[in-house]
């Protein structure tokens, strides 16, 4: 039930844009006293009913994500999630000349991790910023034989082929696992990423020392040729694919190459079934490649004499084509029942199950009818006057926000720091997202006024409770004064609130998409919903306002 109360001493100025000035979760304070000629105003507070319910995130477009997920993550509440991916590759040179008497020395795969660095006393240390879980996994890398075509033959000539998180195409065709796993190139039954930089250098045969030449950021760096510790492809495998095809048209155009060498498939599995880790890989980085190092004979004529020497060359493939992330979930039956149940949508749910990836989200409806029969129109008319067909403000909205309390008895201990809210009907951020100019070091750490990070709140009984706060002042003002549609809102996990590109669902329903930032995190949290028996921790729309008619 909604209620009203008077708060704070009188203020002598109007707070026109409250959400910008309060970038942190501050309390109201007494300001602006003593201004001559300005009437006194009193800030009022009221909360309004909302409805919240669960919605499962069904298979979504998973090609060309901002980053790529890889690994197995076990959530003790939701169950296990596994993400593999397949990626096209193309050469940086379509006219390779491998030379004479070519000998392949090494094949090295390098993919940088998402990481942060700090430097002290000229020593740089790294921290992997998108690593979830702390146990090793099984990692397999295969040559892929499934053609990741660019265009959909069943649609328009310029319509891109869509790929979905369940490993299928828009047409319903499944990506055949046997084609993904055509040839095993690498296997590690106990893989865990390192946060150490990768040291590059040469071996000095005269001194017997390793001479450092450069450092790479922490990376997935694997030897896919003649590896004594891990499985390697058969002898002559790489030579037959590339070096013996010099001058062949399969290496000389992009389309021919994509059809000839169809990329790599990265497969992960849990070792125990209840442990593992998941990581974000930066395949868009210039440092992500498959590099072939080889030697060949080079003959130079000096003073009429031919001199032949051994020279080193390299051949580089980059991840520049299609990449598809494939998600597999093994949800616990009780959670699966909750997120699949649509029978409570009309009334709302008492608990909200939020999980990233191909997980679950919450739907929010504002200004819903209460038990006394008050409707959306009744609530909005408290703030506006429609006399003579012109909308004027009776109350000025200083701040509007939602608060969601964490159910700490059910939630996993590793809950996300941020949530993201968006307009479900139009698949766009709210107006407050664009008004919020609070920015830290990166887009992932921005929008702190609109999307307030997880914080602790001490209730009247002295109990500490974790909660999320989301400011939507501009969104509410648009509904009241600009007659904007009161759209349904989506609430999701987010690994990066700057990643707002829509990922459309394969099946069309009332929710059509989720933002990229939601699918790039395996984390979860359980929140108290609108039908919670404890009204103190159920989510509400809270509005602070000034009555302009006084």
In words, what does this structure look like?
This protein has 550 residues and is mainly beta. It folds into 2 domains: 4-58 and 329-547, no CATH class; 68-145 and 182-321, no CATH class. Strands 4, 5, 10, 11, 14, 18, 19 and 22 form an 8-stranded antiparallel β-sheet that branches. It has a 6-stranded antiparallel β-sheet with strand order 1-2-36-27-31-30. Strands 3-24-32-28-29 form a 5-stranded antiparallel β-sheet. Strand 15 (198-204) and strand 16 (209-216) form a beta hairpin. It starts with a strand and ends with a strand.
What structural keywords apply?
disordered N terminus, 9 helices, 2 domains, 550 residues, 41% strand, six-stranded antiparallel beta sheet
| Structure classification | mainly beta
Low-confidence stretches: 1-39
Strand residue percentage: 35-45%
The total of beta strands comes to: 36
How is the biggest beta sheet arranged? 8 strands, antiparallel
How far is the first residue's CA from the last residue's CA? 26 Å
**How many distinct folded domains?**
2
Helix content: under 10%
TL;DR?
This protein is mainly beta and 550 residues long. 9% of the residues lie in helices and 41% in strands. The strands form 10 sheets. Strands 4, 5, 10, 11, 14, 18, 19 and 22 form an 8-stranded antiparallel sheet that branches. A 6-stranded antiparallel sheet has the order 1-2-36-27-31-30. The protein has a 5-stranded antiparallel sheet with strand order 3-24-32-28-29.
